[in-house]
Amino acid sequence: MISNPINSPWSKNVADVLKELETNVENGLSLSEVVSRQSRFGFNIFKVEKKMGNLQRLLNQLKSPVVIILLFATIISVVLREIVDSIAIITIVIINSFIGFIQETRAEEAVEALKKLSAPKTRVLREGNIVEVSASNVTLGDILILEAGDYVSADARVLKASQLSVDEMILTGESLPVSKIESPLPTLSILADRKNMLFAGTAISTGSTQALVTAIGMSSEMGKIAEMLESAENVKTPLQTLLEQVSNKLLIFCAGVILIVAVLGIVHGEEWITVLMTAISLAVAAIPEGLPTIVTLALSLATHRMAKRNAIVRHLPAVETLGSTNVICTDKTGTLTTGKMRVRETFTLDSGIINESTLSTETHPSIRALIQSSVLCNNASLNDDESSTGDPTEVALLFSGKNHHIEYKQLTTLFPRLAEWSFESGRRRMSVAVKSDDSVLLHVKGAPETVLPLCRLTEVEKNRINESIEKLSSQGRRLLVVATKTLLPSSKEFNFNEFKESSTVENNLSFLGLISIADPPKEESIEAIKQCKAAGIIVVMITGDHPNTAKAIARELGIIKDGEFDQVLTGLELEQITQAELEKRVTNIAVYARVTPEHKLRIVEAWQSLGNIVAMTGDGVNDAPALKKASIGVSMGKGGTEVARQASSMILTDDNFSTIVSAIEEGRAIFGNIKRTIQYLLSGNLSEILIMLGAASLGLPAPLAPVHLLWINLVTDGLPSLALAAEPVPKNVLAFSKRPSPKDFFDKSFYKEMAFVGIMTSILTLGVYVYSLKHEDEITARTHAFSFLVFAELFRSFASRSEHKTFFQMGMQSNIYHLIAVAIPIIFQISLHHVRFFRGVFKVETINWIECLILLGLTLIPVSLIEIRKWMKHNKAESAN
Questions:
Q1: Which residues on adjacent β-strands are paired with residue 343?
Q2: Which of 118, 270, 414, 808 is most buried as measured by Cβ atoms within 10 A of its Cβ?
Q3: Contact partners, residue 690, CB within 8 Å, separation at least 6
Q4: Which run of H or E residues covers position 178?
Q5: 856, 795 contact by CB (below 8 A)
Q6: Do the beta carbons of residue 760 and residue 869 sit within 8 Å?
Q7: Taking CA 596 as the corner, what is the angle to CA 594 and CA 597, rounded to the nearest 5 degrees?
Q8: 795 — alpha (psi -120 to 50), left (phi > 0) or beta?
Q9: How far apart are CA 536 and CA 530, in angstroms?
């Protein structure tokens, strides 16, 4: 019977461990056996903190300060036999709690889905096939297939090892990788000496291995440590922490206002119960209790939008960091470039240098002959689905042929190969003899310095060719010279023995042309870098390529321009300067060439020392320190190692630089959404407080009943605020949005806007109230003030959708969820005035259609003033530019 875990697997030989775990080393486990073992031993996961049930989450809504205050108000109402008020308050408590419950549930679901997206994977042997599975699905007796860069997903006994070493610092504290062996060890070996064991959570540094899983989940060594630790609390994002600090300051301010309103109410002879209920209602209106949930939900929604755009964010705070990023240090190959060698230019004596993208073989028959010769002198293969095998340079030649309708298979049928003189490091060229209709032709391709001396050329022709070589070499291109000659006329039969020595055939060649090959930049990368520059984001390219190649690609991408931020620093030069010197020079270095992953850490630290928010890309094991140190580490989902992915905050599933820029767009957009949502909420809270304070100061009856304040708090802080937080990313957000930072989130402009909206809304509401008091009774005046404020707040949310554009400028970019979020409260508000039961509960009167139209017109004044002010500020800014 298999135990979990088995005893001392390090002390047993491979055969005994396989037998004890009933695993076949050739085929691994069957799928049915995997299911059986998972049902017996569970999944390969650490003990998860027990999730909160729906009932408990709902009950937790009743623990908030707001609800406690409202319940206290309900008790007072019942004692005073104000049954209608008590029912109204308790109903609002239930609705408010339900909305909070929905918000928290959606936020948790979003975060859980995010965890699944970034869950580590591993390769295992099952039913004779190597398959990739989620690490949580690994079971006892599985055979892991691991190589450098992979994380070990469970404790395992090494079966086969090839130059295997493992980084076990996370478990043992050992700073150097530990070499692993296959042979048994003494039973009493301590953890650090178990050199034939792999442990969950460690990483393969070098080599490869097959290892048999001997313990999973909480039974692993890492699981035993996890069991000793208490469950960690969810860490709040920096923005949430800042919001709490600001909320506390606002509460102190509001408490002072509430006290003044209460004192003035008593001075003016209002009943103490009315004063108390008003104070309680004002307290509820003042507390922005929904902000942390709204922030979490907004960040979670952003992560899912990013996932659809090929960027998986592993931690919510990373979304905030993304929005603030102003330096991106990025790899070149595969991220900025395609990662595939392609023909970039061709040169023939009669056509000169021509870019591949503008090439026409029909216009230039000499170029067609050049490409045809390079395709024939080729050992790579290209499939119909564009998959390929062979040397990347030769694959590039085949792709060029395909682009110009020169198919390799058709060509080799027309010109069957008779012989080949292979490429060798000493010769640096390749030749093939092919059968033509009336002759045997020789095609030669190779490095310019080895092929050109074999060609028949005049001095003028040599000079032209050398000028082209110099020009293309300065752009970092890999160059090939292609030449040909007629080896035999048709009257003679080809005999390879006559031409066995290459020197007998590779002479007196006819020069066909030059072909330049390079890894081209992605078109989307060029556009993304333009967007970065417009947004003030610095892009730094890091590559292992030659400095000339690196600089040429950087120019094509638009990273550098001559004389402007165009210094190139090599890894050797980097090692010869101190960190202090690098910090002084770092802002003038756009390209790092011949750089190793170890150098990346120094580059990140240099930029960060100047106060920058730095994103760093990486895919290798050695990239992990730099990825962790960076403000936002970005790993590659396709070609990256598991170590790099675990060390990063974000994973690119398409390994594309433009995806980083898209993620930064999302970060800035969500930051703007949160800021505008908070401003919308706090402006509304401020206006309610100022309305009550203004009326009390003028000696007027309270314009809003306690139940009115509670209702306003419910309908304006609920659906509209959620819709604003989920506002889609606007076009060109990087171009017009400044780089945000939680430190200056509540800047002067924020408070100015909040004060402008709060004061304006309160003055207009008081104006409606005072006018109605002169012409109507107190209940009707309250009805008008109540309805005006609700509709004014709801319509004002349209102005909160953008900081720069008016609602009309946004046009068809409407957020349908926002329209629904406003329409629902409007329907409810209208119902309050036309359903007898609700009129009794909310103590309002019916509003006739004429009054409705007048109030509707008045409620459009606040949003219109805000939009006019926004339009004027925008025009002023444009004029200044």
A1: 517
A2: 118
A3: 758, 759, 762
A4: strand 178-179
A5: no
A6: no
A7: 145
A8: alpha
A9: 10
Residue among 671, 650, 666, 649 at smallest CA distance from 740: 671
pLDDT, tens only, 141-185: 999 999 887 889 899 999 999 889 888 866 765 656 788 999 999
Q: Of 322, 354, 273, whose CA–CA distance to 77 is shortest?
A: 273
CA distance 545 to 580: 26
Nearest of 814, 666, 800, 803 to residue 720 by alpha carbon: 800
Non-local (6+) Cβ contacts of 26 within 8 A are: 128
**Cα(820)–Cα(814) distance, rounded to whole angstroms?**
11
Q: What is the largest CA-CA distance in the chain?
A: 126
Question: Phi then psi for 797, rounded to 5 degrees?
Answer: -65, -25
Task: Provide the sign of the torsion angle of the four alpha carbons 68, 72, 77, 83, taken in this order.
Answer: positive
Q: How far apart are CA 24 and CA 168, in angstroms?
A: 28
CA distance 180 to 207: 10
d(CA 22, CA 2): 8
Q: Hey, is 370 helix, strand or coil?
A: helix
Q: Which residue has the tokens 């004192």?
A: 263
3-state secondary structure of 741: coil
Whether the CB-CB separation of 218 and 224 falls below 8 Å is answered with: yes
At 521-557, the pLDDT tens digits run 888 889 889 888 888 899 999 988 788 888 888 988 9
Residue from 85, 142, 150, 331 carrying the catalytic annotation: 331
d(CA 720, CA 798): 9
Report d(CA 481, CA 467) in Å as an integer.
Answer: 14
Bridging pattern class, strands 143-147 and 197-198: unpaired
Complete DSSP assignment for 592-642: EES--HHHHHHHHHHHHTTT--EEEEE-SGGGHHHHHHSSEEEEESSS--H
Q: Is 150 left (phi over 0), alpha (psi -120 to 50) or beta?
A: beta
pLDDT tens-digit profile of 244-294?
666 666 667 767 777 777 787 777 777 777 777 667 666 666 666 556 667
466 C-beta neighbours (distance < 10 Å), count = 12
How many other C-beta atoms can be found within 10 angstroms of the C-beta atom of residue 37? 21
DSSP 759: H
Mean pLDDT of 225-243: 53
CA distances from residue 643 to 86, 152, 203, 623, 639 in whole angstroms, order as listed: 59, 10, 7, 9, 12
In DSSP notation, 225-265 reads HHHHSPPPPPPPPHHHHHHHHHHHHHHHHHHHHHHHHHHHH
Of 179, 183, 181, 144, the residue nearest 161 (C-alpha): 181
Integer Rg of the chain from CA = 36
Phi/psi for 127 (5° steps) reads 50, 35
Q: Which two tokens stand for residue 244?
A: 């709490």
**Adjacency order of strands within the sheet including 567-570:** 311-313, 650-652, 632-636, 614-618, 327-331, 538-542, 589-593, 567-570
Nearest to 480 by CA among 377, 410, 577: 377
- Decide the pairing of beta strands 632-636 and 589-593: unpaired
The residue type at 112: E
Cis peptide bond prior to 5, omega within 30° of 0: yes
The pLDDT of residue 236: 53
Q: How far apart are CA 713 and CA 759, in angstroms?
A: 18
Return the SS3 of 541. strand
The four Cα atoms 277, 280, 285, 288 give a dihedral, to 10 degrees, of: -170
DSSP 8-state symbol, 701? P
Let me know if 562 is a catalytic residue: no
Instruction: Please tell me the distance from the alpha carbon of residue 223 to that of residue 668, in angstroms, as a whole number.
Output: 39
Separation between Cα atoms, residue 719 and residue 831, nearest integer Å: 18
